[in-house]
Amino acid sequence: MDGKKRGFTAEVLATHYGKPDPHGALNMPVYQNAAYGFPTAEAMELAFTGRTADHAYSRITNPTVEYFERRVRQATGALGVTAFNSGMAAVANLLLTLARAGDNVVASPHLFGNTYSLLASTLADFGVETRFADMTDPEAVAAAIDGDTCAVFLEIITNPQLEVADLTALSAVCRAAGVPLAADTTVVPFPAFRAREFGVDLEVVSSTKYLAAGTGLGGLLVDYGTFDWSLRPKLARAAEVYGVAPREAFTAKLRREVHRNLGAYMTPQAAWQQSLGLETLEVRYARASRTASEVARALDGWPGIAAVHYPGLPSNRFYGVALRQFGEAPGAMLTFDLASQAACYGFLDRLQSICRATNLFDNKSLAIHPWSTIFGTFSEQVRREMDISPCTIRLSVGLEDAEDLLADIRRALE
Questions:
Q1: Residue 270 CB neighbour total at 10 angstroms
Q2: Cα(30)–Cα(23) distance, rounded to whole angstroms?
Q3: Burial class of 243 by CB neighbour count within 10 A (0 to 12, 13 to 18, 19+)
Q4: CA dihedral 391, 393, 394, 398 (to 10 degrees)
Q5: Is the Cβ–Cβ distance between 274 and 218 less than 8 Å?
Q6: Cα 5 to the chain's mean position, in Å?
Q7: 358: exposed, middle or buried (Cβ count in 10 Å: 0-12, 13-18, 19+)
Q8: 263 exposed, middle or buried (CB, 10 Å; 0-12, 13-18, 19+)?
Q9: Strand partners, 392
Q10: Most buried one in 42, 129, 187, 392, CB count within 10 A?
């Protein structure tokens, strides 16, 4: 390699198994089982107490899931990667590892519906306060942080508002306050966005999206080991308890306590599918994001469309920061506004090839009306406060040709 760093896909493909496969299989087999045998009682003790890397029970570790985690870790340069059975499980494990009663989280009000509900309702019942702040205003974020703030949390491109915050500026605020920066990076995947380079300490990803491409559920929690947990005494104790360096305190507490106790580990079948998805992630994302950019530019100014929202449009107010962080095609999701909610329903009903469905970044293109579905259980007041509009259609762009998608949209607008 002459010292040259390999690309994302090459790193994924070059990742070795933890142990040699007895048959020399090129793809990691699916270890679809619950428990593992041991040659001696002492070997069993060492595995159960974490003094060896041997597997004991698949709710805690599994060879197929471990290999998926290893591939993500090698391709991203992370300290630790933990795979869960959904993106929301990854978010929940992140927050439950960070927060204690009396702590607060400074978060964007522009969050996925269940993430918002987890913060505003579920964690509030356990004594964790959420302070919603405008992530595009670093001074407002700084003002919301105090000595009890356990993290700043946001989505790198919000869904469906498509707001983009300056991560470097937010990272500087967090560093000055001694608080970790945590981000949901689902909208732009690993090959196109290196979270660590923009100061993100902890990253959550719904691997249900680009990696699984509609085949199943999953979530990832990535710890880059960049935060000094000695600044957060409540979590720093984990380093002492588990005998690790301070920068490893978060992953130690997550892996040896929180994830074990919550039981939301990824299944081996999902890990096998998503490990294969990693191998083609870079090429699939390149196509889908280019198509999304092409569709957004084509729709901008079309009759019947009141506005197109996509941070890759030069006219978008987030274009500059999105270009700097994500490149010319930031994600494979865009939204557009029609005249009314009734117009949105009519449009969806007339679609012929774009699927009426939730989820993002399936190989198939998907359209949904967020106001009445994803956020439909929230009051109108809360939806307005979250800047959700009854006139908005969200389009997740898949692998179809742009011309075919535009033809379907044109028919549905008539």
A1: 26
A2: 14
A3: exposed
A4: -170
A5: yes
A6: 25
A7: middle
A8: exposed
A9: 337
A10: 187
* Closest residue by Cα to residue 99 from 175, 151, 135: 151
Q: Please say whether the beta carbons of 413 and 298 come within 8 A.
A: no
Going by the DSSP 8-state scheme, the letter that residue 297 receives in this structure is H
DSSP string, 178-208: T--EEEE-TTS-TTT--GGGGT-SEEEE-TT
Q: Which two tokens stand for residue 105?
A: 């989280």
Residue 335, helix vs strand vs coil = strand
CA distance 403 to 414: 17
Distance between CA 150 and CA 98 in Å, rounded?
6
DSSP code for 257: I
Residues contacting residue 113 through CB under 8 Å, at least 6 positions apart: 374, 375, 377, 378
* Averaged pLDDT, 217-244: 94
Query: In the chain, what's the furthest Cα-to-Cα distance?
Result: 73
Q: Rounded to an integer, what distance in angstroms lies between the CA atom of residue 206 and that of residue 180?
A: 20
pLDDT at position 4 is 65
Omega prior to 39 cis, within 30 of 0: no
The closest of 370, 373, 365 to 395, measured between CA atoms, is 365
Q: Which residues pair with 67 in a beta bridge?
A: none
DSSP state of 216: -
Q: What percent of the chain is predicted at pLDDT more than 70? A: 99
Is residue 119's pLDDT more than 50?
yes
Tell me the pLDDT tens digit for each residue of 137-196. Answer: 999 999 999 999 999 999 999 999 999 999 999 999 999 999 999 999 999 999 999 999
DSSP assignment string, 106-152: EE-S---HHHHHIIIIITGGGT-EEEE--TT-HHHHHHH--TTEEEE
On the question of pLDDT at 300 being above 60, the answer is: yes
Which of 266, 274, 269 has its CA nearest to residue 213?
A: 274
Closest CA to 187 of 92, 288, 78, 77: 288
Residue linked to tokens 């471990």: 66
